[in-house]
Structure formats: structure tokens, C-alpha cells
Amino acid sequence: NVLILDFGSQYTQLIARRVRELNIYCEIHPYNNLPENVSDFKAVILSGSPFSVRGEDAPHPDLSAIRGSKPLLAVCYGAQYLAHFSGGEVAPSNTREYGRANLSFVQEGEQFFENITKGSQVWMSHSDTIKKLPTGAVRLASTEDVENAAYRIENEQTYAIQFHPEVYHSTDGKQLLENFLIKIADIQPDWTPNSFVDATVAELKEKIGNDKVVLGLSGGVDSTVAAVLLHKAIGENLHCIFVNNGLLRKNEFSAVLEQYEGMGLNVKGVDASARFLDALAGESDPEGKRKIIGKIFIEVFDDEAHKIEDAKWLGQGTIYPDVIESISVNGPSVTIKSHHNVGGLPDFMKLKVVEPLRMLFKDEVRRVGASMELDPELLGRHPFPGPGLAIRILGDITPEKVTILQEVDAIFINGLKENGLYNKVWQAGAILLPVQSVGVMGDERTYENCVALRAVESTDGMTADWVNLPYEFLQKTSNAIINRVKGVNRVVYDISSKPPATIEWE
Ligand code: XMP
């Protein structure tokens, strides 16, 4: 178990990603809110920070419980912090210390730099520099501009580096983390999806006992994997609810429901389409639509949950990035928002929350799903927004518009699958525009709807670029849509990146 103390760097999550890639479990905690069981962690990593150690508001935590008693790796701000308070000197740097650099000196015979040689590329991002090393420090590496790029403290397992091993551009970054965690801190790299499943199932059994759990399935990866883990732990005491809000993809409700039943889950499908569509009638504001859908969902879910006698727990598919965003709200990170999945429980539901995936990143959820032999097609599904087609029908929503868009979307998505393009795209869908245009079909003039197709590449949805789909594919798709979907006479392809556009149109 590794503890990462977050000083607010934009790269803190990346440190966790790299550590997990070594099959070592780690947790991120804000520097000003240490977990109670600090002594259980086998090593500690201090993150970077947007602050200067010399600044008045800078994080200055008490590390006496950690330093000297545990292997400690201080990155960037962390390295400066150790220097500043232990007899060293930190000052603004006068040379360029952003971006790539190469190690011009590496101390020989150091376990920390095993398999890393002079010339190795590292990534710097700091405006202060360590002018003088702290007491008892030995310099381990330099770059042309940064003399004290790495050091260790004698008679301690304390290591410090000015560069960022977690970013992709530090080519030996993973090796360095491996040297520190496996060779120096002597941690076993035994954290795998299988070990996670075994440990989590045992933990859930112990925590939940014979209580009943209610969980809302969405058809997405997270809620499905969470449900399967809970099902392994408590079997029929897990009651799943899958709500049709009338804004899902074509045939999605019945197909996914069948799939859930096939997996042995105790699931109830609730078709509340009419209730959602009635409530949405006449609403054309995007945020207004989201609010209505959120409210009705809670009402429907609550009605259903009340039918399950004595339910004590609410299961959720919350994942780690959501948790980090919400726990850091009062911590040091600058770019945070609270997330709808966390703490979003309405008071009247009075259930305890259980979130088996709250420590996993998205790709880890997929690996855990794969290790439980979930259908690869399910695990590879594109993300789909909670409000569904409501935010892809621009303007007000009618059942007729939903049907048109479902047909268009199905032609596009099935086409991607049939042409081996689906897995090359991060997210795709169709948008029904509030635009009518003139066309000609046979000898008739038409005046009908226009749809836009959107397919993007992304890793996390935060930034995205449009996908260069083959012209021939677009041509076939456009023909199929116009010929087969009544009410559509024009198809356009969205070639905007995010930013400045967003993935969804609303
Ligand atoms: P944008 O449009 O902001 O979308 O670039 C980024 C990602 O978030 C999804 N999205 C939502 N998901 N509720 C959701 O559950 C929403 O209201 C919502 N709005 C956007 C979007 O599909 C994309 O994956």
C-alpha cells in the first residue's frame, strides 16, 4: 500500500496511475487530511504543487510521522519542501525549467537509478530551484540547467527528484518508480484485477452481511461491474433497478435487460418512458432538460427502492476520479468540481452507500470486469450521457423526434461496428438538429430534418478531437440514413474539437 500526499499538482492522479500500472495499490490523500492509518502504508510519495515553498499559503505539513520511518519519495514541490525545511535553500530559478531535459549526471551504484543512465529524458515543470541541498543529502542526478535534479538523505530511505517521473515524457519514469517501490521499499507487486476481486468480495460480504442492497444499473461499464461484484458477495440480496427513461438507444432497454438477466443478476426493468417524456414536453433548455431528467429519475428510483422491503444499502458505481474530485474540494487542488455521483443521495432515501469501485480508474474497472469474464462488448461500450438522447435532440423533445434519432443513431453505430471502426472511436452518436432544409427525392421537393454525426477520440472526455472516418464509410452511412429514416433528408459530419466545442451539442 502506497500513500500519495497531494499538494495540488495537476499530475497527482498520474502518479497513482503509474504506481497502479506496477501492480501496486496506492491511495491519494490531501496533504492536510492524512488518513488515520498512516502507519499501515509501506511507502509515501509527495506530489508536486502549483505553490512555491516560499509562499505564505504554501502547504507545509508535518511529516514527522513519516520521514525517516518509511520509504519516502518527494517529487518536484515535495523535493523543494524537504530541502527548504531541512537546511537547504530554495530560490526562484533563472533558467528555463519547463519541459524536456536530459540527465547530464547520474550517481553510479545507486539502487534508485538502477537501469537508468546519463542522457535519460526527464520532464521538468517548476519555477523554483533547489540551490542548496538539505543537511545530510547526497546528490544523485543533474541536468544541464538543474544541478540538484535528484538527491537522497543519508541514513534514511528518503529520495527526492525535481522532475516528474509520472509523465509520459520522462522516459524512465516508470523504472524509477519501480526502483523506489519494489527495490528500495520492498513492496510486492501483487495488486491485480483478480486479487482486487477476491479482496473486494470478501470485504463486501463482511460489511453488508445479510442486508439488502439496491443498485441502479445504467447499461454502462461502471454500474455493471459494481453490480457483478456485489452479486458475487451477496447474491440475491442485491436488487438491481434498470430504468428506461425513453431516451436510450434503439432497443437498448430490452437488449441490456436481457443481458443482465443472462448474467444472473436480480434485476427489475422499469419502463418509465412516458413519465419522462411527459415531464420534458415543451422544455428546450439543455440544463432544464437535465434537471427534469434527474428529478424524475430520483422519483422513479425511489418508488422502486421502497418496494424492496428492508433495503439498507445503496450500491453505486462511483469510480476514483469522481472521488478525488470531490474529496479535494477543500484540499489543495485548483481545478476541481464536486461530482454528481458522490454525496448525491437524496435525504429521503436514508440508505448507507456502498461503492465497490471507488478506488479504481476507468481502465482498471474494465480490467476487473474482464477478469470476471464479463462480455467484452459490454466492457468496450462507448460512454453514453445519463440524459441520453434528450441532449442530442436540440430544442424541445417529442416521441416522434426520439424515434427518428434512435433510427439514425442505430444505423451509424451499427455501421461503425460492421466496419471495424467502433473500437477506434471513444464516443459516437447522432444529433437531431432543429433545422429543416430543402431536398429532392424522386421528383418531389422535400423540406425535412437535418442530422449531424459525431465521432470523437479522447481518453477522458475532458479534451477530444473528431475522428477522421473514411469518406466511403460516411458516404454509405449518409445514404443509408436518408433512404431509410423517414423525415431526414440531410446528414452532416461534425468536425469540431473540444475545446472549443464540447462533445455533446447541449
Ligand atoms: P461534453 O459535452 O461536456 O461531454 O464535452 C463530456 C462527456 O460527458 C458526457 N456528458 C454527460 N454525462 N450527464 C452525463 O452523465 C450529463 O449531463 C452529461 N453531459 C455530457 C458526454 O457524453 C461526454 O462523454
TrEMBL record:
Annotated active site: 76 (nucleophile), 164, 166
Top class in the EC scheme: ligase
InterPro entries documented for this protein: Class_I_gatase-like, GATASE, GMP_synth_C, GMP_synth_GATase, GMP_synthase, GMPS_ATP_PPase_dom, NAD/GMP_synthase, Rossmann-like_a/b/a_fold
Keywords: ATP-binding, Glutamine amidotransferase, GMP biosynthesis, Ligase, Nucleotide-binding, Purine biosynthesis
Source organism of the structure: Aquimarina atlantica
Domain GMPS ATP-PPase: 191-381
Top-level lineage group: Bacteria
SUPFAM superfamilies, A to Z: Adenine nucleotide alpha hydrolases-like (SSF52402), Class I glutamine amidotransferase-like (SSF52317), GMP synthetase C-terminal dimerisation domain (SSF54810)
Reactions the enzyme catalyzes: XMP + L-glutamine + ATP + H2O = GMP + L-glutamate + AMP + diphosphate + 2 H(+)
Assembly mode: Homodimer.
Name of the gene this protein is made from: guaA
Catalytic activity, EC: 6.3.5.2
GO MF: ATP binding; GMP synthase activity
NCBIfam families xref list: guaA_Cterm, guaA_Nterm, PRK00074.1
Protein name (database record): GMP synthase [glutamine-hydrolyzing]
GO cellular component terms, semicolon-separated: cytosol
Pathway assigned to this chain's UniProt record: Purine metabolism; GMP biosynthesis; GMP from XMP (L-Gln route): step 1/1
Transmembrane segments annotated in the record for this chain: none
Record's function text: Catalyzes the synthesis of GMP from XMP.
Residues that bind ATP: 218-224
